[in-house]
Design a protein that fits this description.
By secondary structure, the chain is an alpha+beta fold. The protein has 4 helices and 8 strands, in the order H-E-E-E-E-E-H-E-E-H-H-E. It has helices spanning about 5-20, 75-85, 105-120, 120-130; strands at about 30, 30-40, 45-55, 55-60, 60-65, 85-90, 95-105, 135-140. Strands 1, 2, 3, 4, 5, 6, 7 and 8 form an 8-stranded antiparallel sheet that branches. Helix 3 packs across helix 4. The chain is globular, with a radius of gyration of 15 Å. It starts with a helix and ends in an 8-residue tail after the last strand.
Length: about 150
């Protein structure tokens, strides 16, 4: 399993490539969109941004995989969104969009997991490394409540 240090180093390298190219490079990996997901830290209350690939999307729905490279622990960003599902997502360098994040239902996962692992076999490999079922996270546009004001 990748260490926290190596995961942070990979993300820093990715962000550096985006910075040095002024966003012209780094919003796609292996024909998968790369998104920046910002959650609120469950303990700190601070904004936490992470770069993730989205192996599946339909319209405004984006799906990310909480694999952590097949580690037995969920990624911190997943634990954060379990505590607060209100997230912000940057897609392709466009302005941030407010979205809701939730774990896929068992029916949604049963439908999407085979599609994702057929296109990107690395996710199937991650699942073989851990006993936990790797969650799929559904990112959907946040609908503001007109009654809230």
């Amino acid at each position: 399993m990748p260490s926290t240090f190596s995961m942070k180093a990979m993300e820093s390298s990715h962000r550096f490539v985006q910075w040095i190219t002024r966003g012209r490079v780094g919003w796609s990996i292996n024909q998968m969109p790369v998104i920046e997901l910002t959650t609120i830290g469950r303990r700190s209350g601070e904004k936490r941004a992470t770069m993730l690939t989205s192996p599946f999307h339909e319209g405004d729905l984006y799906v990310v995989v909480a694999s952590r490279g097949g580690d037995d622990r969920h990624p911190a960003w997943f634990l954060n969104l379990e505590s607060n599902p209100n997230v912000d997502v940057v897609i392709g360098g466009a302005p941030s969009k407010p979205m809701n994040a939730r774990a896929a239902t068992s029916d949604e996962r049963a439908r999407l997991w085979p599609i994702i692992t057929k296109r990107y076999a690395n996710y199937a490999g991650y699942q073989t490394k851990t006993v936990r079922e790797i969650p799929l996270v559904m990112l959907e546009p946040r609908i503001s409540d007109p009654a809230a004001g």
